[in-house]
Amino acid sequence: MATTKGTEDNLEQELQSLTERETFEPPAEFRQHAVVDDDSLHRKAHDDPEAFWLERARQLTWVSEPTESLDDSNPPFFRWFADGKINASYNCLDRHVDAGLGDRVAFHWRGEEGEEEAWTYADLLRDVQRLANGLKERGIGREDVVGIYLPMIPEVVVAMLACARIGAPHNVVFGGFSPQSVSERMKVSEAKALITVDGARRKGKTAPVKTEVDQEGIGDLDHLETIVVVRRTGADCEMAEGRDVWYHELLDGADDECPPEELDAEHPLYILYTSGSTASPKGIVHTTGGYLTGIAHTTKIVFDLKPDEDVFWCSADVGWVTGHSYIVYGPMLNGATSVMWEGAPDYPDKDIWWEICERYGVTILYTAPTAIRAALKWGVEYPERHDLSALRLLGTVGEPINPKAWAWYHKVIGGERCPIVDTWWQTETGGIMISPLPGLTATKPGSATLPLPGIEAGVYDENGEELDEGQGYLVLKRPWPSMLRTLYREEDRFVETYFEKFGRETYLVGDAARKDEDGYFWIVGRIDDVINVSGHRMSTAEIESAIVSYEHVAESAVIGEDDEDSGQAVTAFVTLEGDAEPDDELESSIREHVAKRIGKVARPKRIIWADDLPKTRSGKIMRRLLRDIAEGREHGDVSTLREPGVMDDLAEKVREQGDEGDE
Ligand code: PRX
User: Fold this and answer.
1) I want to staple 540 with a disulfide (CB 3.0 to 4.6 A). Which of 267, 348, 558, 612 is the partner?
2) What predicted TM-score, i.e. pTM, was given to this entire model?
3) pLDDT tens-digit profile of 623-643?
4) Of 293, 296, 299, 308, which Cα lies nearest the Cα of 101?
C-alpha cells in the first residue's frame, strides 16, 4: 500500500506547505487513548518533586522498597532512593515471566540476510541466568567491569542483563568503534572480562572481530582474565588457553538458575564512554535504582507505550546510550515487544527499514534525523513499497531536525496521523529530558518542546541569569534520578565539567539553546569541542590526536563543518613536518589511520592541507575561524591572532584545493 500518492513535484509542494506551518496539535484520535492526556503529572512533579519520583520508583519491583527519594547532602554527588535494594535484570525479565508473560516476544530479531528469530522474555531469562552463572564461575562478580563489544545480535542483550544480574557494571563499546578503542576502553576501565564475537557482518561482508581485538594488545592487559566469544560468522580465531571461552560452551556448562543479586540502588549499572572536550573519552557512570526509574517512566510517557499492543523499534545501536535506554532497559522494564535489526539502513536494499516495519507491525519508530535525511534523499519509492499503516508514533533523537526532514517523516512515514516526539537528552542524562508528550504537547518542527515532568531546564547567560529569550547555556536546574553519578575514576573532571560554571546544584549540559515565547526549547548545538556527525558524538581533540600520531603530520585542527547529510562532517586542517609533501595517498592513509584508531564514524570527510593554523598569542587554535574558512564565509575578527596573515593564506589554500577537487 502506498502511503503517499502523486508525483515528486507534488510532494515537494506539500512538504513546503507543511514546513510553513508552525505548530502541530496532537491528533484527536491519538489524544483520546494517550497514556498522558493532561497535565496532572506535571502538577504532581511541580508540587512535590521528591514524592513524584519516589512514586515513580515504586512502580519497579524492589527487593526492599526505598523510603528516601533524593539525597542532596553532598552536591554534586546526588543519590536517589539510596535505602532501596533492587536488581535491573530481575525487573527486565523475572518480573514479566512471573506475571505470566514469559511467552511474550521481547525482540523480533532480524539478521542481515533475512534470518529471523523471536526471543521471548522466558528465552532471555534462561540464557541470562546461564551466562550470569558462567561469568560467576570465572570469578566475575559485583563491581567487576565487563566489556561488551558485539554487533546487533540478541546476545548483546543477554550479555548486558547477565552483567546486571550479578552486579558487574557493563562497559559496552559501539561495534563501529575500532578494536583499538576497545582495547583502550578495557584498559582505562580495568575490565576483568570482555564479551565479543568471532566476526561481524556488515552489508554482506564480514570482519574478523576477535582476531582484530587480539591484535590490539588486549593480551597485555593483566586485569582482563576472560574473553567470552560468541560464534557468529565462523571466522577462524585463536582461543587463548585459560583466558578465552566460547559463549555457547559457557552457557552449555552452566546452571540454569542464577538468583539476581540484591543490589543497593546506587550500585553502578554501567559505564559508557562518550566524547568530551579533551582527547580522552569520559566514562559516564549510571547507577541502578535511579536510572531504571527514569528510563521505565520516560519510555512509557514519551512513547505512549502500551506493552500489550505496541511493537517498538529504536533503530540505534546498543553501543550508544540510546540503545542502552530505549532498546534494552526501557522497553524491557515495561515488558514491551521490540524489533532489533542487525544491519544498515540500505542493505540488502534501501527499503529494508520499511520492510521491517511492515513485517513486524511496528507501531512506534524512534530514529535519528540523519537517517530520515538519507531516506528522503533516496526517495519515496522505498517506503511506498510497504504498508506502514501500523505506525502510530514517530520519534527522533541525537541532533536538531531540520523542518524539511520533519515534514517528510510526518507525511511520508507517518501518513500525517502520527505525532513526532523530538527528544533531547544525552549519555549523561541517562534518559529523555526535553520532549513533547505525544498526547498533550503541540509540536513545532525543530524544537524538542518542553521539559518532561520532574525536569527543570533553563537557559542561562554567562553570569547564571536565566534568559527568557535569546541564546545561552542550557542547564538542568534540579537533580533527576537517571543522571550520571560521576565520571569513572575521574571525580574532579566530573565536577569541573558539569558543576563548576553555575555551581554544584546546576548541571551544565554543554549545549547552547534558546527559548521561544511559549517557553519551548530550541537546541542550537554544542558549546564545547564536541561535534555531532550523523547523531554520533565525536571529540575534535580525539580525532586530532589520532591524526597527529600519523607519520609526517605536524599538527592538526578538526572542526565540524555543516553537512547536508550528516548534520556535521569531520573536516581536518593538517600541517605536515619539514619537507613532507601532501598528496592523495597521504590523505587517504590519514583517513584510514583515523578509522583504525577510533572508528569509521570519525574518519575525516575532508582534509585541508595548511602551512600554518590560526592561533591566539597563547597558542590556542581558533576553530571558529577555521569553520569560517571551511564553510567559505568572510572570516571574523582576527586581531587576537599571533599571525593574522595566516587566515588569508589559508583561505587561498582552501580555494585552490576546492578548485582541484572540482576538476
Ligand atoms: O548536542 C545534543 C545532541 O546530542 C548530544 C548528546 O549526545 P550523546 O550523549 O551521544 O547522546 C545522543 C543521544 C541521546 C546533546 O548534548 N542532541 C541529542 N538529542 C538532540 C540533540 N540536539 C538537538 N535535538 C535533539 N533532540
Assistant:
1) 558
2) 0.93
3) 888 988 888 888 777 877 888
4) 308
